[in-house]
Specification:
about 230 residues; 2 domains
Length: about 230
C-alpha cells in the first residue's frame, strides 16, 4: 500500500520581524537554548503560528546572525510567520511578557518581504579591556596597519588559522574607558586559512553592559561592556 503524503499546511498570511536583546546572565544562553525558550514563549502567548508541511510540522521561524554565546547584544533578529493577521504591537507585548528577563523583545514590525539575512551588512562591537591606555592605542594601531593577523582556533576538523584582520572594516580605541570598537562586514574580504570561512554577523548591534546596566542605545554614555555587539 502506497504511503499517503502528509497534509499540506496553508501558507502564512503575515510575517513579522522581531528584534530582541540578550542581557545579563542570559547572554550565556546558546542559540539553541534561545530557540527553545522562544518557541515555548510563542505557545504560552497563544500566537497563531503558521507551520511547515510534512510529517513533522514545525512553527515557521527564521533567525539571522545569532550572537556568539557569552556576548550581550541589543540587536538580535528573527522572523515569524503567522496563520492570522495580528497587530505587531500586541505581539510585542505578548512575547515580552512570556520571555524571561534578559531575553527582551525590543521591536516587532511587519516584514516587507525578502531575506532577513540579506539586510544585515555588518556588526559593531565594543570591548572593554583592563590595559593601560597607551598600550591599547598601540595595539589597535598595529592591528589596523597590519595586512594580516592570523589567529588559531580549534574546529571540528582540527586546529585552523584565521585572518582576524580581514573581517574588520575599522577599529578605534578610547583611552578614557580603555575601550576598543570594531566594525566588521557580514562577509569577510579575506578567506581564512582552512576549509571553513568565518561567519561575520549582522549590522547595527547596540551596546549594553553584560549584567544589564548601562544605556541600551546611547554610545556616548559610559558603561562597560565585554564582548558586546551593536546594531543601529
Amino acid at each position: 500500500m502506497a504511503r499517503k503524503d502528509p497534509p499540506q499546511q496553508p501558507p502564512p498570511v503575515q510575517r513579522l520581524r522581531v528584534r530582541y536583546a540578550k542581557r545579563g546572565r542570559l547572554r550565556f544562553t546558546s542559540h539553541r537554548d534561545f530557540s527553545r525558550a522562544f518557541e515555548r514563549a510563542v505557545f504560552r502567548a497563544r500566537i497563531p503560528m503558521a507551520y511547515s508541511s510534512g510529517f513533522n510540522p514545525h512553527p515557521r521561524m527564521s533567525y539571522a546572525g545569532a550572537a556568539p554565546t557569552g556576548s550581550a547584544s541589543e540587536a538580535e533578529y528573527l522572523e515569524i510567520a503567522l496563520a492570522r493577521v495580528l497587530v505587531p504591537s500586541e505581539v510585542h507585548a505578548l512575547l515580552d511578557e512570556a520571555l524571561p528577563p534578559g531575553l527582551d523583545i525590543l521591536e516587532v514590525v511587519e516584514s516587507p518581504g525578502g531575506s532577513l539575512a540579506d539586510r544585515l551588512e555588518a556588526s559593531r562591537w565594543r570591548i572593554d579591556l583592563s590595559v593601560p591606555a597607551a598600550d591599547l592605542q598601540a595595539a589597535v594601531k598595529a592591528f589596523y596597519d597590519a595586512d594580516e593577523v592570523l589567529v588559531e582556533r580549534m574546529t571540528k576538523k582540527g586546529l585552523r588559522e584565521f585572518d582576524a584582520r580581514g573581517a574588520v572594516l575599522s577599529i578605534t580605541a578610547s583611552g578614557a574607558g580603555r575601550r576598543a570598537r570594531a566594525a566588521r562586514p557580514r562577509a569577510a574580504p579575506r578567506r581564512p586559512r582552512g576549509p571553513s570561512r568565518r561567519r561575520a554577523h549582522g549590522a547595527d548591534r547596540r551596546l549594553r553592559h553584560p549584567d544589564g546596566r548601562g544605556p541600551p542605545h546611547d554610545e556616548a554614555r559610559p558603561g562597560p561592556a565585554r564582548g558586546v555587539r551593536r546594531h543601529r
